[in-house]
């Protein structure tokens, strides 16, 4: 994954004319870096459950997404206009929940889980 400074730094304004930036993620004591929502913005997450892989790529989230289902058919949705039960206010929660689930799955695949052994 190629990270640009804007992907992990947050511009907090200016102090005495100088730009002030803050780190968007930090390294944990266990040697694991947690990449959160800030790094995954403008990315599309791809799950390959059959091969137990997860991946991501740069993506314009206002574009349509081809969603494949087990029947082999696909359907197109606009990721920027997702809603739950017609309530557009729930769309952001749904997307954030998906990103959190993707991050958790990635960590389990990378580190392993004592519950899976």
From TrEMBL:
UniProt cross-references to InterPro entries, sorted A to Z: PEPTIDASE_A1 (IPR033121), Peptidase_aspartic_dom_sf (IPR021109)
Domain Peptidase A1 per the UniProt entry, residue ranges: 1-57
Name assigned to this protein: Aspartic proteinase Asp1
